[in-house]
Amino acid sequence: MARFSPATVESVDLVPTGVGSSKARRARWVVARFRSLVAAGQALGALSRMRPMGRRLTLRSSFSPAAPDLGIFFPLDPDLEYAYPPPSPQIVANIAAAIAAVPTLYTQVLHLMNKMNLPPPSVPATPSTPLPNIEIAPPDMLEALPAYRNYRRGEPAATLFIKNIDHKNVTEDDLQRLFSAVAAGRRSATGSAVEPASVHVRLMKEGRMKGQAFVKFPSVELATEALERLHGGIVRGRPMVIAIGREHATAILLGIARDVDQSAQARLDALAKVQSVFDLVRRTIPNHEATDPLLVTESVIKRQALISASAGTEIRVATYKIMRILVSPSSVRILFSSHIDLFIIRTLIRDPRYDSEREQAIRFIRACIEEPEGPHFVPMSVVRALAAIAEQLDDRFRTICLETICELAVRHPELACFSGGTKAMFAALLDGPPEMLDPIVSTFLHLLDSPASRRYIRPHVELEMVISQFVDAYTSKTGYSIEKLVGSASVIRKVLSSWTGLVYFSIGNMRSVRSIVDALGLPNEDTRALIEITQDRSREISEMAILLLAGIMSLCSKQLPAEFASKVQSLPSLFRLATNFHDEGRRHLATSKLSQILNISRSAASAKTTMPAHPGLLSFNCVAQTRLDCIRVHAGLQIDEAQLRNMLNDSEVIGAKDFTKWNWDIIDDIVSGPLLNPKRYDDLVRNTKFVSRLIAFFRPTSRQFSDMPRNSPKVLRTAVELVRNLASTVEGSRVLADTKFLLEIADQLGQHTMPVCQDLVKNQASVTPDNVFLKERMEATMSSDYFWIIRAFTHRPDGLRLLEQCGIYNIFYQLADLRGREDLSNAILTSMDYSADSHPRVILAKMLTAGSRALRFTATLHLEQLAAAHETSFHEWGIPLLVVQLYDPVADIVQVAVGILQRLCRRPQNLAAFAQLRPDIQHLAVVGNDLLLQMLALPSGFKYLAEAGYVESEIDYWFEHGIYQYVTHAELSISEGLAKSLPKSAFDTLDKDLVLNMDGRIPIHLYGELAKTSGGVAYLEMVGHTASFLDRVRAFRDCIAPAAAMELKAALWALGAIGSSASGLAILEDGGAITLIMEVLRAAPVITVRGTCFYVLGMIGRSPKGRGILEDLGWLGESIHVPGDPESVLQFPEWEFSGSWPARQGLTFKPLHYRADAIEAEILTCIGNLSNHILSTAASKRLAVIRQQHPHYFVKPELCVQAWRICTAYHYRVATRRFIQELFERLVFDSQVLKVVDQMDGVAMVYPLDDKDSARHNENAFKSSLSLLAKDPDGKGPSAANTANRMSLQPARVIRGF
């Protein structure tokens, strides 16, 4: 600061190390305060050019320089605002006078013009707009450039293509200022001034096109003038090479494609080249906003429209592909304003021969809908065509059209309703397809939620059609469809699993719910028939009926309340027959059937008490055994010598060497009982060969047990019991050691620990071919179960001693991270006993850290199973292992570890153990932020995180963004939990990736975790966020828009999380939050807001104090609280249906520009009558007659547009639409016809209606379509010559609706 005057510097301070942001803590900062902003600006400019000690200074200022890119570092006063008037001749004259009067001002203006690279004012004025000072390169210099090779100027067009630009030093702003100077002061064809902003520039700075640019002008004349004046201009040392842009080339190609005189192949080749050009531009410039001025031009769109009416299918397919490339947020409106919808609806209703063309048209429509504002530009005529296809059961594109209508209904419900889309959706609930039931119901629930979209759903009409299927099943004489019943049941379950659907079904004194319950209570003839079938004399039919009836009874006992299940299980009809002594034959038959059903029930009950199929799932301690097993063991201890001798003989172990003849049930009884009796021990071990033969059978070298196929649970159970019981005594351990059983297993396993190489002496591999632990044998035989037998040794000290003597654990250490044999590692992992702090835990830690990626992943997953098996001790040794996995280099393993820790930390001891380890906050905030939130529930965790600054930054994030993300996560989790029992749809996977580890539980909330500790409560009171949440809730009646409803839900969830703990509940009581939430529950206009209140009140009821408050408010329950009077919560006012007729929009079609004659009026009347199934036959016949007598009417474009307008306003099936299209098949859509369509504004409803006209249209819906015709100004009516052609049948009134 010594170089600056002391009078300008107020103070200079040295900021010590550690102050400032985290990134700047290692730097030293000097803070200089100047006495004026001008002095500070001068210092900033001077310091930016200094290099003290060869280093560049890092400068920060508390003000913004005026124009640093021009070298003007003087600051702007932040408190100063300018409100200068726009330039005018008088103002410009006054400025010129001031410049002439003040010489210093004149000098400063010249300096500023020089800085801005403006032309000097001393040169003579020219008629053209002055350009910046730019030098034009001589022709020989241009011709020597590589970019000038094969240069062709091209035909005039509105787009220029520039090459040879220094992309490193030239910016788009430079080119914008240069080419905008050409447009400045010009006027367009309409006489309006051309704005410089209408010149669009796109400069490529990467890829193969770097150093090239496109410039789009509003007219061809301006582009031509810019090329003549700037071609060869030197910018930053390089001359520009300017030529006509790509638009002209595409225009020529599109002209070839629409030329009917060209061959079909030539037209297809032209379209292929156009598509390649557009693809290249889109790939080169991903930003659509920059490419739209270059590609989406009026000439291109007009040519596309003409080509789409071409006679060739392949040509139309290619046209739709090109139009799909052009779709962008700003081009959707331009595309449909060219009335392309008239050709799209013609394509959609074609027959299956043109499916390729129809597919591309639907793809184009979906591309438009996917844009942010796309649904608001899609015309009603297109949606009408989609709805017609959606109602055609055999149409190939029915499903995709239904899906498209669902998306439209969510984003633009008014369009979907007035176009008949919602009607097609609800019809699909009954007719299928089944895979569309879930998205249709989800769309329906979304529409019901908000008042803005709810008015397009008729209460007590739409979903009641689904309920009626159950009533029709009992009343219909023609029977019923089981597919429709299953589909209707799925729909009702889906609706009732959401709060919105539950409220809807409760409207009108729960009329819909009562209808469902009454339908389920109606007598079912099928059940009666089943009772009769059980008495059929055919044994096979009777047995099948008995099995089905027993299954129904079992299902009723599980799902129905006891009072209803008892009525079903009593089988009154069958018991009535069994007690009828007047018919002995039927009585005995009914009695036998009841006995068979009872035996089936008993067999099912006894099957539940049997052990699991895989013995690896067994628990090897007596506590975990079933009571039946304990009784059997106790009985086995009481067996005397004679009984034992008989059992030994029956087992065939001593008498037969062939083990396939052994009785493993008896062997298991002997091993589990008498072997534990000291009196019988000598008889089994010393006096007989029973035990020795069993051990010999299980030895690996015997090739008996090891060669048995997998899944032999009885044999494995016997082996485990034998080893465990022998290892429990000293004598038994000696027997196991003498047989070298473990030594053989160790030898077989040890071969896999040696390096895989050839022995030079024996010329043999380290692993012998007959090794029982080869990979293929592990997969096919019982060899893999040797690890469970090894585990049996670990339950007794003598067994552990044997394992250590034989070196089993040493081998396990080496196999734990053996690459390529993860099957052995997995077998060791899942079979070891981790209850004691010994070798297994050390081996597990090695697998978690040193194993292969697959093994580490499997071992991490296994930790959650170990946590369930060792609940009391897992926090001591398992939680540290999981914390280590948080730092694994594989993201999938880290994600699994985070999920397991989140679930395990719901237990207080696990959470305390995790917090005690003090994990790294920065790392955990990235991979598992929820774990840090859980730590806030502990005083030590809150202190640790608060000292690190985590709480302050996290609460700021949550208040701005996190509470809104929480709403989405909570609703998805609840939806997933409620839909667990529902059949899965293909569309369910859309939401799977949004929420991880969500199983119906409420996610962790920052405010809820803070409220669990006294320090957190104090912090919440300090920041004052609770008061802000309460203010949002108080304004709940105004929260109707989606954004406002989201804010209200976020506030409710935050209050519920705070009130879920006893310490946080006190904060809510002070603000009267619970009473306010109850009011929102009963009066909120958005239904899902009411559902949020219900869940929030349930969260408040978690604490004893909260339960008391809810009980005072009339709620019942202990762990789950529900209103004592559900109707008071579920009642909802009905609404008025507003989707009956499109004229309610206040728009109609543009009237005809001429007076239609009587024949045209009759044609349009007949077309209107085609929508009425009563009048359609006569109307179609009359249209055929008129077409034969007056064919020239059906080539008039005005009449064709009028016909499609009626099809837009009314509902027509696909077959009828095809008939109407065939009427006008001779009309050729050339450029003249397209002009007529443009004059009529196509089939779009854009003509405004006043209130009087709107009321008249709504009063008589059918006549409103005829109002499209011109009125008779003289009131004389049609001429007498045309009256004979009129239909005598007057048009029928159409009831308001679809």
TrEMBL record:
Pfam families: RasGEF_N_2, RICTOR_M, RICTOR_N, RICTOR_V, RRM_1
Domain RRM: 158-247
Origin superkingdom: Eukaryota
The entry's keywords: RNA-binding
Gene3D superfamilies: 3.30.70.330, Leucine-rich Repeat Variant (1.25.10.10)
PANTHER family the record matches: CYTOSOLIC REGULATOR PIANISSIMO, RAPAMYCIN-INSENSITIVE COMPANION OF MTOR
Family the UniProt entry places it in: Belongs to the RICTOR family.
Protein's name in the database: RRM domain-containing protein
Source organism: Polyrhizophydium stewartii
